[in-house]
Amino acid sequence: MLSFRAIGTIGGSMRRGLAAFHLFLFCAALAATASAQPAPDPGAAEKRFAQMMAHEHGLDAAAVLQTLHGARYQQSVIDTMTRPAEARPWKDYRPIFVNPRRIADGAAFLDANRALLARIGSQYGVPPELIAAIIGVESNYGRTPMRYRVLDALVTLAFYYPPRQGYFRSELVQLLLLRSAAFPYAPDELMGSYAGAMGWPQFMPSSVAKYARDGDGDGKIDLWNSLPDICASIANYFEAFGWQTGAPVALRAHVAANARNIDPQGLDPVYPLQQLAEWGYATDARLDPATPATLLRLDGADGPEFWIVFGNFRVISRYNKSPLYSMAVYQLSEAIAAAARAP
Description:
alpha+beta; 4-stranded antiparallel beta sheet
C-alpha cells in the first residue's frame, strides 16, 4: 500500500503534469487562433494608394478604393511566395520542366502550330522552339489552371507582403491602368497565378502594357485564348530585350584541372571567350574569341556543372531572373526542337 507521502508525491506530479498539459493546449490554441485570424485591414494604406491613383493617374479615388475592397486576401499566395521552386538546386529543379512528358507535349505543340510559330518566329527573329518552351514552362501548354483572380493576388502581395510590396504595388497600379480598347477586361475578371501573372505567357501587368501584342489582328489582346496573341507577345518580349537571332545561348564548359576559381555576380556577359579559355573554361564551339560571355555553375545530379552563357541567356533571364529558370527554358527548347524534327 502506498504511503500518504507517496500519494502526495504522485498527486503533485500529476498536478504539475496536468498544468503543463493545460499550458500546452493553451499555447496550441493560441497559435491556431493567430494563424486562423484574417489578415489585418490595411485601411489607411489602401486610402493612400487610392489617393495616389487619383493624383498621379487621374482615376477616381472612390472607385479605386471600391475595387480594392472587392479583393479577397489569399493566405496561400503569401505561403507560396515563401517557398519558390527556384530555391531548389538545379538537380531537383530541372526535372520539373525538362522531362519526357513536357518535351513530348512541346514537340506536339510545335508540330501542331508550325505555320503560326514559323511566321511569328520570322517576324521577331525568335526561334519557334523557344516560344514553345516558354509556354511549356509557364503554363504547361495551357494546362496549368489559373487559380487566382489577379486582383486578389496583387492586393494580397501589395499590402500584406512587406519584402516586395513596392514591386507588387507598382504592378497593382499597372493592373488598374490596363483597361483599354485593346485590353477590354475589368481588373476583377482577370485570372492568373499566385503572383498576379496572366495567361499562357504569365505576363505581369507591366509586361502586358509594354510587350503584349495582337497577333491575330482582331484589335484585342487575349493571352488566355488566342495562340497568335500569346506567341506574338512572347516573341516581342524577347526581341524587346535584345534577342540576337542565331547567336549562342549556353554551352557546356570543359574545365581544366588548374582552372581559375571565378564567381561572376549576375548573368551579364562581361568576359570575352578568350579570357574564359585562358582561365580554364573552354567549349568545342567555333566562335569569335571576343564574343562576350560569363560563367555559370549549377549543382547537377552528377556534381557541379559549368556553363558558358551568352547575351541570349541573359535575355531569357529577363522573363525570370533565376539562372535555373533560364537554363530550364533553354534545355527544354533544345529538346523540343530535337523531338519535333524526329520522324
